[in-house]
Design a protein that fits this description.
There is one protein chain. With 181 residues, the chain is α+β, with helices and mostly antiparallel strands. 31% of the residues lie in helices and 41% in strands. The relative contact order is 0.17. The N terminus is likely disordered.
């Protein structure tokens, strides 16, 4: 009984801490926006192709947003034999994401793509945990793929695997705040 009480108290404190996280809204060229926790700073050194990037190096938390032209993606996917061209573009993108992730890391856990709606748009949520090539520590990835009017957006967040339970709700909140403008 004592352990159950401690478990309930710990869970309550954790949910209260999560509710205290404050977010700022960031916009890219009047095209899209996303909320990031105040404790993550905007950066430009994670991936050159990502117009919005956030990090907190002391917490080892990172997020980036990529936007890719749908017409360009269709022409790229046309030459990839593993992609079923009869499926919607968002499904093709998920297939490509899975192929590239499996090539770049030893996956321990994988979920998705799970259908979702983000900012009124069709989306897919994918999660991976494993060992990226060249690293000897477990990494957790939360990926939201969102189909906009003219672009596919990918919100990718990651942290150390051991911090997954603390950071997943924050990554989820960030992805769900995404809006195409």
């Amino acid at each position: 009984m004592k352990y159950l009480f401690l478990l309930v108290v710990t869970a309550t404190l954790f949910s209260c801490e999560l509710n205290k996280v404050k977010y700022d809204t960031y916009t890219y060229e009047d095209k899209f926006q996303i909320d990031a926790p105040e404790f993550m700073i905007q950066t430009d050194d994670l991936l050159a192709e990502a117009p919005l990037q956030f990090e907190n190096t002391s917490k080892e938390m990172y997020t980036l947003v990529i936007n890719e032209d749908k017409g360009m993606l269709e022409s790229v996917f046309f030459v990839v034999p593993e992609i079923d061209k009869s499926k919607p573009l968002i499904e093709q993108y998920c297939t490509m994401q899975t192929i590239s992730t499996r090539d770049l890391m030893e996956i321990e856990e994988e979920s998705g793509p799970e259908k979702a709606t983000i900012g009124g748009l069709e989306a897919r949520i994918m999660e991976y945990e494993g060992y990226p090539e060249g690293l000897d520590f477990d990494t957790y990835y939360y990926i939201a793929i969102i189909e906009g009017e003219d672009a596919i957006y990918k919100v990718t967040s990651w942290c150390m695997g051991e911090d997954k339970s603390v950071n997943r709700p924050i990554f989820k909140q960030m992805a769900e705040s995404f809006k195409e403008l």
